[in-house]
Every structure is written in structure tokens, then in C-alpha cells.
Amino acid sequence: MIDRHLLESQLAAERATYAERTPRSRELFDAADHLFGRVPMTWMNKWSGGYPLYLATARGNRITDVDGHEYVDFALGDTGAMAGHSPAPTVEAVRQRIEVEGGITAMMPTAEAEWVAADLARRFGLPLWSFALTATDANRWALRLARMLTGRDKVLAFSYCYHGSVDETFVITGDEGQARLREGNVGAPVPIELTTRVAEFNDIDSVEHALAHGDVAVVIAEPALTNIGIVLPEPGFLEQLREACDRHGTLLLIDETHTISAGPGGCTRAWDLRPDIVVIGKSIGGGVPSGAYGISQELANAVEDHPDADLIDVGGVGGTLAGNALSVAAMRATLGEVLTDAAFEHMIALGTRFAKGVQSVLDRHDVPWSVSQLGARAEYRFAQPAPRTGSQSAAAHDDDIEEYLHLFMANRGVLMTPFHNMALMCPDTTAADVDLHTTLFEEAVSRTTS
Ligand SMILES: Cc1ncc(COP(=O)(O)O)c(C=O)c1O
Predict the structure, then answer these.
(1) Residue 1 has what pLDDT?
(2) Which of 18, 117, 217, 304 could link 129 by a cystine bridge, Cβ 3.0 to 4.6 Å?
(3) Which has the closest alpha carbon to 206: 242, 265, 169, 159?
(4) Centroid of ligand 1 to alpha carbon of 288 (angstroms)
């Protein structure tokens, strides 16, 4: 059992150590008078310790901060660097594009784009692809297509899901099962109930209830929730979801941005899912902004036949820099040479090793937490058994334990993902890196249990 008094004193000690170890990061943060929130993007304040570590260099799964400390990186830019930092084939392809060929962005296609689309089709099973620079944009554009094709105005999203800054998806279940705006949402454009119906993950009755209104264009779903801890689907849930969508004339969008950890074609391929639309972002450009959505032939035909679809001007789908030559070159190299089938085998084996290591510590110390694995990704949650819905997982959140564990790790050279207790394996991660985490996790837990 976690002893709250011990936790308090250990957390104070870790905060002090963090401050002693990272004076240069502190100095840069204090001097950032012209940055809103003192950081280039406000989420960067999520790192524990009161200010973020400043990046000096990064290669593979190693990061060095501006105070000269090296870290084993399990955060990997919250999946943006799943291919490892600056993977050599991606760097080479980017250099070739920028230095040798020239032309970073020209609003013109490059020859490599078809290879990338064909590879995404091979991985995820959908035949036709279009590119974006973020998963957020890919989701937004795909939702627009779905609304237009079905002639319906609502989206169904799962409570506590996250799909990027997509207005329709900042939703939780209200007291009477209605869609409620998620707390903290900044400047919502319209009341969420105008755009969204909500359901609980793993609760097919709540899905049926929402779809029965007959106004849902598309269900947007991660095949396992990953942004409120990992919530794995229970056996049969995703099949029931597909079947319910078919019966209600609703499309199914699977967002694989994080769940690509399950394998080269994400959960879609690993679990034989049949989405109408797949969205993928973050990892596929090796860190260079890249995203994509894939659609079925049937959907593509319907869009082409639609009398009012303006897809080549200001219809709300697409962006000036999307599919640019640099992004496409980075995707070509990353998908072709870094995030390969063989790399996934290595990463998933390490994900298993990580989850087993954590579980063995929890068992030895009789701590009522759980660890969930999704291929190359694993996450611990402060509840046992593992939560089965987003709402249950949200209730298991514990700020103090999370900050303590993050700081304990960072102070000893291991980075965990700030928004999660998540560890992601990349092609450069080794068994020794995973074992270092297990050893530190055991030490952190034993210092706070009585
Ligand atoms: C499942 C999922 N989809 C989409 C996004 C949005 O990605 P981005 O912020 O790169 O647009 C995220 C970000 O965390 C995500 O987890």
C-alpha cells in the first residue's frame, strides 16, 4: 500500500533534487519573457518539477539536456519520435530533399508520395490516402467528409477520448448519459451537444443508445484508449461497434495515431478491424510533421459523385503545406526503413518485457495498480483491476503519485511521457534500458510503501 506521508516527503525530496540538477533549464525558463507560459507551446509546461527540461541533443532513444544529463527516453515526444530521435534514413532523406534537390514546399506532388500511400494501404488495408501535417488535421478533414457523405451532423466520441484539438471530441459522459464538455476546454465554438454524442468505451449499450438517434455520421475511436491511460477493448467490443455502425448507417473512423504501437498496421491490422476511415499521425514522418487519412474505395466514389464537394479549394479539407516534399520524403524513409515490420517485432518484445517488469514489482510490493500493454507501449495506472472505460480511468488519476514517479525517474536518467505514465519503445531501445526502468520503479515504489 502507498503510504501518503512517505509519498509527501519523497516527492519533496525529488523536487529538490530536480531543482539542484537542472539549473540551466531553470535559467532558460526564467528568461523566456516573450513566450506565452514561458514555453514555445503551452503543453510543454506539463513536465513535472515546475519547469521543463530543455533539450540539447537527441539521438535514438537518448536525450541530453542543457545541463549535460543523459536520459533514456521512453517519452519519445509522446509518440512523435517513435522511430527514435533523428533516425539516420530519415535524416538522409531530409538532407537529400533540402540540400541536394531543394524544394521544401511547393504545392506540387513528388514522386515518393505514391509509395507512401501504397505502404499505408499495405499496412492498414484502406486503398486511398491523403496527407496532412498533424493527426488533428487528418481527423478534422475526415470528419468533414463523413458528415458530407452521410448527410448527418453529429459525431460519436468516447468519454475522455483524445484525438487532437478536434472540437467535436472534447467530450465526457454527463450525469444522464448526455454529451458534456470536458472540463478545462478552452473557448468551445458551440455547445458540445450540438456536434457530439458520447458513449463509454467497452459499453456497447451506450453506443447503441447514442446511434439510435439516427443522426451520427461517424464514430471516431481509438481501438484502445491511450490518452487516459491505456484502456484495452474487451473481447468482442470492437466487432460489436462495427456491427452497430453498419446497422445504423454510421461510418467508423479508427484513429491509429498512438495505437500503431500494436504493430506495423496498428490495431486495424493486428486485430483485423474493418474501418471506413483510418487516421494516422505523429510517428510516420520520424518527427517531421506528417499525418494522413485513408478511406475506402466506396467512400472515395461517393465523394467524387457528390455534387457539392469542393476538395480542391476552400471546402474545409486540406492545407497549404500538407503533403509537402519534405514531409513526404520523411514519411518515405521512416516507413520504408525505420518503422519496419522487423523493428516492430523488437519494440513489441520490449513492451512485453517492460509490462512484465512492472507487474512483478507490483506483485512483490502488493501495490493495487495495474499495467496495460499495447504492443510497443505500456502504461501503469493507479487502479486495480485496470479501468475498462475512460471515465473509470479518469477517476484513477493521482497527481502526486504521477509527479513523484516522473521526477524519481528523471532524476535518475529516465524520461516518462508527461501526459501519461507511459513508456514507448523505439527501434533503438534495448532490454537494458527497460530493465533500468524496472529497477528504478521498484526503488520508487519501495520508498513509498509501508
Ligand atoms: C489518438 C490521437 N489522435 C490525434 C492526436 C493529435 O495529434 P497532433 O497533436 O499531432 O495533431 C493525438 C495526440 O496526442 C492522439 O493521441
Answers:
(1) 78
(2) 117
(3) 159
(4) 14
Q: Whose CA is nearest to atom 15 of ligand 1?
A: 163
pLDDT under 70 in the chain at which residues?
A: none
Largest CA distance in the chain: 68
**Ligand 1 pocket, 223 CB below 6 A?**
no
Task: Give the span between the Cα atoms of 339 and 249, in whole angstroms.
Answer: 35
The CB-based long-range contact list for 120-124 (8 Å cut-off, 24+ gap) reads: 120/278, 120/280, 120/284, 120/292, 120/294, 120/335, 121/294, 122/265, 123/264, 123/265, 123/266, 123/269, 123/335, 124/256, 124/265, 124/266, 124/268, 124/269, 124/278, 124/280, 124/294
136 in contact with ligand 1, CB cutoff 6 A: yes
> What spacing in Å lies between the alpha carbon of 258 and ligand 1's midpoint?
8
- Give the closest residue (by CA) to ligand 1 atom 6: 164
Answer whether 282 contacts ligand 1 (Cβ < 6 A): yes
Per residue in 202-228, pLDDT tens? 999 999 999 999 999 999 999 999 999
Helical (H) or strand (E) element with 378: strand 377-381
User: Cα–Cα distance between 169 and 198 in angstroms, integer?
Assistant: 9
Whole-number Å distance between alpha carbons of 68 and 435: 23
pTM of the model: 0.98
